[in-house]
Structures are given as structure tokens and as C-alpha cells.
Amino acid sequence: MADLKKLLDDRGAAIKAGRDILNKAEAENRDLTADEQTQYDKSFADAAKLKSKIDQEQSQRELERQAAESALSHTELSDGNPAGGDPGSREKNIPEKEFRNFLRTGAVGPELRALQADSDPGGGYTVAPEMFVANLIKAVDDLVFIRGLSTVIPVVGSDSLGAPSLDNDPADAAWTPEIGAVSEDSTMTFGKRQLTPHQLTKLIKVAMKLLEVSALKIDVLVIARLAYKFAITEEKAFMTGSGAGQPLGIFTASNDGIATGRDVSTDNSTTAMTADGIMNNFYNLKAAYRMNANWIFHRDGVKNVSKLKDGDGQYIWRPGLVEGEPDRLLGRPVNESEYAPNTFTTGLYVGILGDFSYYWIADSISFSMQRLVELYAGNNQVGFIGRAYVDAMPVLGEAFSRVKLG
Questions:
Q1: Measured by CB atoms within 10 angstroms of the end CB, which terminus of the chain is less buried, N or C?
Q2: Distance between CA atoms of 54 and 37, rounded to whole angstroms?
Q3: Among positive and negative, which fits the CA dihedral 18, 19, 21, 25?
Q4: Model pLDDT for residues 101-123, shown as the tens digit of each residue
């Protein structure tokens, strides 16, 4: 297990080294030399790599905690259970390094390959126990950060989720004489936001002897792998999904979500963000939205904004160097996603600030597992197909402000 405090301290030292280089050049009123630029890029790359390790370690600890709880409390997915054994010691028969590596990367090493799973003569379609569903959703929440920021609504007993929307407020009240006609409003209009959960699937194949020779519960492995695969697919859609048969992403211009009127490019260059451009974006949001707003950038975008200073020479990006404290830009938390846009070219999106409580995620609660015994029997494997139904979209465009290059 990595030393989290040391990782945080090392990241702080790398960030300071990079800033010292920038401050020296600024004090001497000159650009960075080629050597200084190389040193700065290395410092930032080291800080970014450490940030990735910190995030990975924190997520890994949470996944292992959930896996340990699952091993103690979950019911079996089928009647093909191994006989005997202490449920509380199921993970101990697998080397810790091998188990951690599987949860982190999905790579199956020799120790796990040697394990096999008991065949299930019944086979067929089995709906996952409710606790299994809850743990899967929790794991996805940990891996896809937008879920933790957004409004997540279960769709129960229907095919879709609909909500009325106030598209236009009435005009201001009019001062009226004591005897006079009351002015009629013609601007107030209503609309509707509709989310229809779309099917999301993934297949996992497991060696047949696993349940015979190992005390490790199969659902622990299935949860970990499905959580990873479902999380990655959802994160991509929440960022750039088209809205056609999948969620509508925050970086997709759409009148049904965030229209182009919420894009801000003023003062940004054609290849980079500027401090003034970020300020323009920040104040494009009303104060009520800014109070609960979060930034999202690709790590290349974070590298860009980490160099920016305000008119007083102060950096507008502040790193979080304490466990659990996020990096901040103009006081608001910064989130990194590998699936946020990172092509720095004229007219493209490179970041967003928004109150993500106005990004709605509709989940159907009928998550299920299908166990396939005969199909993969020739390879001594059992297949597990996981299914979920998800839709998502921004429901109020003015709660977001997208960063666009000039």
C-alpha cells in the first residue's frame, strides 16, 4: 500500500519547483529558456503523475474496502457454492498483490488463472440481489466523479423520467394606475426534460473451477470488473455523449442541454486559455450557480491553467496538498477527466464550470446478471453479462459555462 502522505508531499515539492522556475523568469522580465522550459515540463509531469497515483490509491482503498465487505456479507449468485471455508477469510487465499492488481487493472495473473469455477447445471437468467446492485452503484460513484456531483434519480415503474421545465420567466411586473388595464404576460413558457435509460452491457468470463478450489467469492471479482468497465463507458458519455441512444454530454453543444450561448471564448487565444478568459468564464455564471460550481478539465487543461496569474501576480490555480482537499481554480474545485477534450485548437472546448446538480442521471433499478454456462463450456469458462440502463443530460443550460478557445 502506497504512503499517501509521502505522495502528497512529493507532489507539493514538484509543484513548488515548477513555480520557482516561472517566478524566476517573471522577476527577470523574460521568457523561459529552453532548459527552464524542459525543467518546468518535467516538474509538472511529475506532479501530474503523482496526482494520478494519489487518486488511484484513494480509489483503490475504497474498492478494497467494498470488496472486503462483499466477501463477508454477500449471498451467492447461484446454487453452485463451494463447500466449507470461513466466509470472513475468503480473500486471504489469494496473494494480496495479485488481488490488488486485478482490482486496479483487470489483468489476471497466474494465481488467479489457476483458479476455477464450479459449473452451474441450472444456468439461466438470475436477477442480482439488491445489495449487489447497491454496491455496484456505489463503486461506479467512486470511479465516475460526475455521479457524485450530479442529481441521480432512479426510474421506477416506468420507461422514462420526465420533468417540466420553466424555459422562460414572465416579464417583470408593470406599475399600474389604480384604474387601468392589467398588462398580460406573453413570455412565460414551459417545456419538458425527458430521460430514457439506455441499455449498457458488458460480458465477463470466469474459469469454471473458481468456485471449486478457491474461497474467493465470484461476485467480488465480477463487481470490481463490471464497476470499472461501466464507469469508463459512462464517463465518456457524460463528457461527450451525443444524446442519441446514450447520455447527452456536457461538452456536446445542444439546445436540449448546454447550447452554444453558454460558451465563453473572449480573451482566450487560439491555442491556450488565459487568466482573463478564465475570469470571463467564471463570471459568466450567476453567483447562485458559482457557489456550488466545479471545474472539469483534461490534465492538459490543468497544466495550462496552473501557469496563469491574475492582475496582482497571484496564481489563480491552487493545488490541494492535503488528503481529501481538491485542487482549486478561482476558489472552486478542479476535477480531471481523461475524457474531457484536450485538443487546443481554435473554436474547440477545453473545459467547463458548472453546478452539476443540474446534470441529471436517470438510472433504471432493474440491474441484472445473466449467467451463461453452456456457451463457454468448451473453454472451461462461465460467462457473466451485466446490464444497466442509464441516461443523463444537463437540464438547465444557464447553470454551466463552457471554456472555448478563441
A1: N
A2: 25
A3: positive
A4: 544 444 545 444 433 333 343 33
